[in-house]
Amino acid sequence: MERDGYKVLSYSGSFAKNELTKGKILVIANALNELNTENWYLPNPSAFTTAEIDVVRQWVQSGGSIFLIADHMPMAGAATDLAKAFGFEFTNGFVFDSLSRGPAYFNVRNKTLTESIITKGKEKSVQQIASFTGQAFKIPEDATGILTFSKGYINMLPDTAWVFDDKTTRMNAEGWWQGAYKKYGKGRVVVFGEAAMFSAQLAGPQRVKMGMNNETAPENFQLLLNIIHWLDGKLD
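RE: above sequence
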C-alpha cells in the first residue's frame, strides 16, 4: 500500500469517532477478543464492544470505508457482530475442498471469481485468486460477491481450531462467499473471510511461501490494489 502511495498507520485503543475521522480507510484483519489470543476454542466472543461497532457503522455511513478481514475460527466469531452491522452473516468455521486441504482457487472461467468493478480494476483485471483456508459467509442483497465457493467445498465448524472429528458439524459451502463488497450510506464496505491471501509470508520452519509469495497466487496483489482503490473512490 505504501508503494502505491498510501500512508499506512496502526490504530490503537478503542474505536472512537474523533480518531476514525483522521483516516479514510479502516482495515481490520483477524481481530480477536482477549479471551482467544492464546486459546483457539469456543466460546469466541466479539473483539469489539457494542459501542465500538456503532461508532464504526456510523463512521462508514457518513463516508468512511472499511476493509474487514476475518479468517477461520476463532477470528470469524470475533468479527461476527461487526459484520452483522453491515448485513453480512459470518460462519465461525473452516472451509475445505472435500478432495484437498490445499489452497482454494477462484477464477473468472468457472465464475467462482465474479467479474465486477473490483476484479476488473482500472488498469489491470484479475483472472484467478488463491486463498489459504478461511471461512464462508452469506452476503446481503445489496452486496456484490467477489469470491464464491463451488460444489465440493465443505464448511466445518469445530469446537477447537484445526481439530476435526466425527462430532464436528459439516455443511455444504457451495454458493457461499469468501469475498464481497457494498456501499453503505455514503461509505463503502469490503469483507473477506481469509487473510493469508493478502499477506506475504514465509511460514514455519520450512519457510513455505504463503499468500502473495505463493506461486499459485500471482494475481492476489492486484486484487488487493483494486480493493483499496475502490474503497478510496478511485474505482467507480
